[in-house]
Amino acid sequence: MKVxxxxxxxxxxxxxxxEGVVGRARTGGLIDIVVHNLRDFTTDKHHVVDDxxxxxxxxxxxxxxxFFAALAxxxxxxxxxxxVVMLTPAGVPFTQAGARRLVGxxxxxxxxxxxxxxxxxxxxxxxxxxxxxxxxxxxxxxxPALAVVDAVARLVPGVVGDEQSVDADSFTRxxxxxxxxxxxxxxxxxxxxxVLVSGHHGEIRRWRRNAALExxxxxxxxxxxxxxxxxxxxxxxxxxxxx
Length: 243
Ligand code: ADE
Hints:
This protein is of the alpha/beta class. It contains nine helices and nine strands. A five-stranded parallel beta sheet has the order 2-1-6-5-7, with helices on both faces. Strands 3-4 form a two-stranded antiparallel ribbon. Strands 8-9 form a two-stranded antiparallel ribbon. The protein is elongated, with a radius of gyration of 22 Å. Adenine binds next to strand 5.
């Protein structure tokens, strides 16, 4: 999979891509990510990327021309992208289902905004979609772009060593994850639930499934409507809601 990220803070983005799962995926050649400095696509001496808003008001707006030039250069050097994603709090909420959809595309371009926003003509003419990573305002699209790349990269086959661990993750089944424990079996006066040290794999599976359901019902009941539940789980939930 190919990803191009356009930003005025390339070092910040590179730092976020250098470590951990994404860093290994890059060095291992499983994902090809290029970070572009938007200022490289300006034509003036001072590499200006922003300007005052038409109509007045506070703050600055990112100019359209550098984004158009960057997209043209990327298309020429790296091929036409399958999606051009603008990160903005006004975008569609980014979800695990969204990550699964994006990993199915071969080539993504991510546009990071700063200041009050990006000139609307970039959204109209270049962006194929807009994503938000949550209902809060960050000072730019760099952290959201890193979040999207991380969520998508770990779905690329081979990137996460244990494929089962991706399958078991929160949200893969539409449920929150069950609690995890490692040694020691008792710590700070708190023992690990007995079933987990029992060696009964069927029981362990059932305990985990119920713990995931319980947690989701308690913390995020909104997720249950779309979760992949079997008949037992539906029954468990209806009993829970009656008690
Ligand atoms: N830019 C600033 N805040 C953002 C958010 N919550 N999601 C995506 N892009 C953003």
